[in-house]
Protein backbone atom coordinates (compact mmCIF):
# COMPACT_ATOMS: atom_id res chain seq x y z
CA UNK A 1 0.00 0.00 0.00
CA UNK A 2 1.24 3.46 -0.90
CA UNK A 3 1.70 6.28 1.59
CA UNK A 4 1.38 9.65 -0.15
CA UNK A 5 2.69 12.67 1.69
CA UNK A 6 0.09 14.94 3.28
CA UNK A 7 0.45 17.42 0.45
CA UNK A 8 3.11 17.49 -2.28
CA UNK A 9 2.15 21.07 -3.17
CA UNK A 10 2.73 24.27 -1.23
CA UNK A 11 -0.48 25.88 -2.51
CA UNK A 12 -3.84 25.43 -0.80
CA UNK A 13 -5.91 27.18 -3.45
CA UNK A 14 -6.05 27.37 -7.23
CA UNK A 15 -4.44 30.22 -9.12
CA UNK A 16 -7.55 31.80 -10.64
CA UNK A 17 -5.37 33.66 -13.13
CA UNK A 18 -3.80 30.44 -14.41
CA UNK A 19 -4.52 28.97 -17.84
CA UNK A 20 -6.56 26.01 -16.56
CA UNK A 21 -8.71 28.18 -14.29
CA UNK A 22 -9.34 30.75 -16.99
CA UNK A 23 -10.42 28.09 -19.47
CA UNK A 24 -12.74 26.16 -17.14
CA UNK A 25 -14.31 28.76 -14.83
CA UNK A 26 -18.11 28.50 -14.62
CA UNK A 27 -19.95 31.75 -15.30
CA UNK A 28 -23.27 32.87 -13.83
CA UNK A 29 -22.45 31.94 -10.22
CA UNK A 30 -21.96 35.25 -8.37
CA UNK A 31 -20.33 34.86 -4.99
CA UNK A 32 -18.76 31.54 -6.02
CA UNK A 33 -15.56 30.30 -7.60
CA UNK A 34 -16.35 27.14 -9.55
CA UNK A 35 -14.47 25.33 -12.29
CA UNK A 36 -15.65 22.46 -14.47
CA UNK A 37 -13.74 20.37 -17.02
CA UNK A 38 -16.05 17.98 -18.85
CA UNK A 39 -13.28 15.70 -20.15
CA UNK A 40 -10.68 15.79 -17.40
CA UNK A 41 -9.77 12.17 -18.16
CA UNK A 42 -10.65 10.05 -21.18
CA UNK A 43 -13.64 7.70 -21.12
CA UNK A 44 -11.59 4.49 -21.21
CA UNK A 45 -9.58 5.55 -18.15
CA UNK A 46 -12.75 6.68 -16.35
CA UNK A 47 -14.45 3.33 -17.00
CA UNK A 48 -11.37 1.40 -15.85
CA UNK A 49 -11.07 3.42 -12.65
CA UNK A 50 -14.80 3.02 -11.95
CA UNK A 51 -14.62 -0.77 -12.26
CA UNK A 52 -11.53 -1.00 -10.08
CA UNK A 53 -13.00 1.24 -7.38
CA UNK A 54 -16.16 -0.87 -7.09
CA UNK A 55 -13.87 -3.67 -5.90
CA UNK A 56 -12.63 -1.77 -2.83
CA UNK A 57 -13.37 -3.62 0.40
CA UNK A 58 -13.90 -0.43 2.40
CA UNK A 59 -17.35 0.55 1.09
CA UNK A 60 -20.10 0.94 3.70
CA UNK A 61 -23.43 2.73 4.21
CA UNK A 62 -23.38 5.02 7.26
CA UNK A 63 -26.10 4.86 9.91
CA UNK A 64 -27.27 8.46 10.40
CA UNK A 65 -30.01 10.31 12.26
CA UNK A 66 -32.49 12.93 11.05
CA UNK A 67 -34.85 14.70 13.45
CA UNK A 68 -34.02 12.04 16.02
CA UNK A 69 -34.89 9.15 13.73
CA UNK A 70 -32.15 6.71 12.65
CA UNK A 71 -31.76 5.71 9.01
CA UNK A 72 -29.16 4.13 6.74
CA UNK A 73 -27.77 6.37 4.02
CA UNK A 74 -28.59 5.28 0.46
CA UNK A 75 -25.10 6.01 -0.83
CA UNK A 76 -22.17 3.76 -0.06
CA UNK A 77 -19.02 5.63 0.94
CA UNK A 78 -15.32 4.94 1.42
CA UNK A 79 -12.87 7.43 2.89
CA UNK A 80 -9.08 7.66 2.87
CA UNK A 81 -6.53 9.99 4.46
CA UNK A 82 -2.81 10.58 4.01
CA UNK A 83 -2.21 10.56 7.78
CA UNK A 84 -3.82 8.25 10.38
CA UNK A 85 -4.36 11.24 12.70
CA UNK A 86 -6.86 12.95 10.37
CA UNK A 87 -10.58 12.71 11.15
CA UNK A 88 -13.87 14.00 9.73
CA UNK A 89 -17.57 14.06 10.65
CA UNK A 90 -20.80 14.80 8.82
CA UNK A 91 -24.45 14.57 9.88
CA UNK A 92 -23.21 13.56 13.33
CA UNK A 93 -21.38 10.57 11.88
CA UNK A 94 -17.68 9.89 12.50
CA UNK A 95 -16.42 8.80 9.11
CA UNK A 96 -14.45 5.55 8.99
CA UNK A 97 -11.04 6.67 7.77
CA UNK A 98 -8.75 4.28 5.93
CA UNK A 99 -4.98 4.62 5.79
CA UNK A 100 -2.87 4.39 3.73
CA UNK A 101 -4.20 5.06 0.23
CA UNK A 102 -4.32 2.06 -2.13
CA UNK A 103 -2.13 2.59 -5.23
CA UNK A 104 -5.06 3.44 -7.52
CA UNK A 105 -6.31 6.25 -5.29
CA UNK A 106 -2.81 7.62 -4.94
CA UNK A 107 -2.56 7.69 -8.75
CA UNK A 108 -5.91 9.47 -9.10
CA UNK A 109 -5.15 12.05 -6.41
CA UNK A 110 -1.74 12.72 -7.91
CA UNK A 111 -3.40 13.30 -11.31
CA UNK A 112 -5.89 15.80 -9.85
CA UNK A 113 -3.28 17.63 -7.76
CA UNK A 114 -0.89 17.91 -10.69
CA UNK A 115 -3.54 19.56 -12.85
CA UNK A 116 -4.76 21.97 -10.18
CA UNK A 117 -1.42 22.67 -8.50
CA UNK A 118 -2.84 22.13 -5.01
CA UNK A 119 -2.50 19.40 -2.38
CA UNK A 120 -5.13 17.19 -0.75
CA UNK A 121 -4.95 14.91 2.28
CA UNK A 122 -8.40 13.29 2.18
CA UNK A 123 -10.67 11.68 -0.40
CA UNK A 124 -14.30 10.70 0.12
CA UNK A 125 -15.78 8.25 -2.37
CA UNK A 126 -19.56 8.19 -2.88
CA UNK A 127 -21.14 5.34 -4.85
CA UNK A 128 -24.51 6.08 -6.41
CA UNK A 129 -25.59 2.61 -7.55
CA UNK A 130 -28.27 4.03 -9.86
CA UNK A 131 -30.43 7.11 -10.38
CA UNK A 132 -32.54 6.42 -7.31
CA UNK A 133 -29.55 7.23 -5.10
CA UNK A 134 -29.09 10.94 -4.54
CA UNK A 135 -27.78 13.63 -2.21
CA UNK A 136 -29.96 16.55 -1.12
CA UNK A 137 -29.17 20.24 -1.05
CA UNK A 138 -26.23 20.95 1.25
CA UNK A 139 -23.08 22.99 1.75
CA UNK A 140 -19.69 21.45 2.34
CA UNK A 141 -17.44 22.54 5.20
CA UNK A 142 -16.51 26.15 4.51
CA UNK A 143 -12.99 25.73 5.88
CA UNK A 144 -12.02 23.62 2.88
CA UNK A 145 -9.96 25.93 0.69
CA UNK A 146 -10.48 23.75 -2.40
CA UNK A 147 -12.93 20.90 -2.99
CA UNK A 148 -12.35 18.87 -6.16
CA UNK A 149 -14.78 16.16 -7.28
CA UNK A 150 -14.03 13.64 -10.03
CA UNK A 151 -17.03 11.84 -11.59
CA UNK A 152 -16.80 8.28 -12.92
CA UNK A 153 -19.59 6.26 -14.52
CA UNK A 154 -23.14 7.41 -15.23
CA UNK A 155 -23.84 11.03 -16.09
CA UNK A 156 -25.76 12.81 -13.32
CA UNK A 157 -27.38 16.22 -13.02
CA UNK A 158 -25.67 18.69 -10.66
CA UNK A 159 -27.70 21.62 -9.32
CA UNK A 160 -26.46 24.71 -7.47
CA UNK A 161 -28.89 26.80 -5.40
CA UNK A 162 -28.23 30.25 -3.93
CA UNK A 163 -27.93 30.03 -0.13
CA UNK A 164 -29.55 32.76 1.92
CA UNK A 165 -28.62 32.96 5.59
CA UNK A 166 -31.25 34.16 8.06
CA UNK A 167 -31.52 37.93 7.96
CA UNK A 168 -29.41 38.24 4.80
CA UNK A 169 -30.24 38.87 1.15
CA UNK A 170 -29.48 36.62 -1.80
CA UNK A 171 -26.30 37.47 -3.67
CA UNK A 172 -27.26 39.80 -6.51
CA UNK A 173 -27.85 37.92 -9.76
CA UNK A 174 -27.74 34.49 -8.15
CA UNK A 175 -30.13 32.00 -9.77
CA UNK A 176 -30.40 28.20 -9.74
CA UNK A 177 -27.87 26.68 -12.14
CA UNK A 178 -27.72 23.07 -13.33
CA UNK A 179 -25.57 21.01 -15.66
CA UNK A 180 -24.65 17.38 -16.28
CA UNK A 181 -21.50 15.91 -14.72
CA UNK A 182 -19.93 13.71 -17.38
CA UNK A 183 -17.97 10.48 -17.05
CA UNK A 184 -14.39 11.57 -16.34
CA UNK A 185 -15.32 15.18 -15.52
CA UNK A 186 -13.79 17.33 -12.77
CA UNK A 187 -15.72 19.88 -10.69
CA UNK A 188 -13.82 22.26 -8.40
CA UNK A 189 -15.19 24.72 -5.83
CA UNK A 190 -13.22 27.22 -3.74
CA UNK A 191 -13.42 30.67 -2.22
CA UNK A 192 -16.84 31.74 -0.90
CA UNK A 193 -18.75 29.07 -2.82
CA UNK A 194 -19.90 27.17 0.29
CA UNK A 195 -20.87 30.42 2.00
CA UNK A 196 -23.22 31.50 -0.77
CA UNK A 197 -24.37 28.31 -2.52
CA UNK A 198 -25.82 24.87 -1.85
CA UNK A 199 -25.57 21.95 -4.26
CA UNK A 200 -27.27 18.60 -4.87
CA UNK A 201 -27.41 15.47 -7.03
CA UNK A 202 -31.18 14.83 -7.47
CA UNK A 203 -32.92 11.51 -8.06
CA UNK A 204 -33.09 10.42 -11.71
CA UNK A 205 -35.04 7.12 -11.75
CA UNK A 206 -34.43 6.50 -15.46
CA UNK A 207 -30.68 6.13 -14.87
CA UNK A 208 -29.86 2.47 -14.21
CA UNK A 209 -26.06 2.70 -14.23
CA UNK A 210 -23.84 3.58 -11.28
CA UNK A 211 -21.67 6.61 -10.60
CA UNK A 212 -18.73 7.05 -8.25
CA UNK A 213 -17.59 10.50 -7.18
CA UNK A 214 -14.19 11.07 -5.60
CA UNK A 215 -14.16 14.29 -3.58
CA UNK A 216 -10.73 15.52 -2.55
CA UNK A 217 -10.46 17.83 0.46
CA UNK A 218 -7.91 19.52 2.74
CA UNK A 219 -8.43 18.46 6.35
CA UNK A 220 -5.06 19.81 7.48
CA UNK A 221 -6.05 23.26 6.20
CA UNK A 222 -9.21 23.16 8.34
CA UNK A 223 -7.11 22.82 11.50
CA UNK A 224 -4.84 25.74 10.78
From TrEMBL:
This is Fe2OG dioxygenase domain-containing protein. It comes from the Eukaryota. Gene3D superfamilies: Alpha-ketoglutarate-dependent dioxygenase AlkB-like. GO terms for molecular function: dioxygenase activity. It holds the Pfam family 2OG-FeII_Oxy_2. Residues 119-220 form the Fe2OG dioxygenase domain. One of its GO terms (biological process) is DNA alkylation repair. PANTHER family: ALPHA-KETOGLUTARATE-DEPENDENT DIOXYGENASE ALKB HOMOLOG 3 (PTHR31212:SF4). It comes from Serendipita vermifera MAFF 305830. InterPro entries: AlkB-like, AlkB-like_sf, ALKBH3, Oxoglu/Fe-dep_dioxygenase_dom.
Amino acid sequence: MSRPSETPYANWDIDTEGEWAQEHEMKGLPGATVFYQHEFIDEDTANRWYTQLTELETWYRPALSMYGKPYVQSRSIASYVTSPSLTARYSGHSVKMNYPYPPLLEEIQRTVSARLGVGFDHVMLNWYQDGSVHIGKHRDTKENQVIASLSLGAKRTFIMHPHISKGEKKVAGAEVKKWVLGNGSLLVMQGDTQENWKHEIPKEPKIKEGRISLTFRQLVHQKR
